[in-house]
Amino acid sequence: MKFFRNLVNLVPVALLGAAGAMAQSSDAVISAIQSFTSVSSNLADTVNDLSIVNFATDGPKIPAGLENITTAVTSFNAEFSPSTPPYPDDVAIEVVDVLTTFVEVHQQLLELIIGKHSLAAQFALTAPIAEALRDLEAVVDTFAFDLIALIPTEQGPALAQVNALNVTFTQTVTTYDS
Ligand SMILES: *[C@@H]1O[C@H](CO)[C@@H](O)[C@H](O)[C@H]1NC(C)=O
Ligand SMILES: *[C@@H]1O[C@H](CO)[C@@H](O)[C@H](O)[C@H]1NC(C)=O
């Protein structure tokens, strides 16, 4: 079921590879956030379709998919440079806009993952999922702080999004740690 299609214009996954090329431009940063949104949305579809029937085969796609996002965010984080001048306010507003969509989609992904906790427990997958969640949370945190440094005029709204995502991450990790 592709219900996330309404929420986000899907960007080809191939963009992930190119995302790091020109990270100092706001266009590259915006494309990167959109590509993280897109892979999160795809993984949400996969997680949504998990059931007792296919979990043995497809359940491992949860940690594998989370690790893929971690890898993409990690390589993008390496592209941030402290010498990049902050973006003007009109661009900062655009950045917050795509960040807000990312947070929305990512929260839905995390909530779907929470919903599969008892299945994951039955198939002994909670520990690898918890680990993958912690790894992803750490790199998204780094990404968020580097991003916020580039948009000083919109720090408040950006932080509100990041904090909201942080709360959902904590809930998800707590669920999978128990
Ligand atoms: C993770 O990335 C690899 C390499 O691009 C891909 O083959 C695999 O399907 C991805 N896994 C998931 C669950 O998205
Ligand atoms: C998210 O919460 C953790 C503690 O739970 C904190 O260390 C981290 O700095 C927070 N991240 C952001 C971006 O607020």
UniProtKB/TrEMBL annotation:
Domain of life from the UniProt record: Eukaryota
Q: Keywords of this protein's UniProt record, alphabetized? A: Signal
Give a Pfam family name: C166
UniProt keyword Signal present: yes
Q: Which residues form the signal peptide?
A: 1-23
Q: What is this protein called?
A: Hydrophobic surface binding protein A-domain-containing protein
Annotated organism of origin: Dichomitus squalens
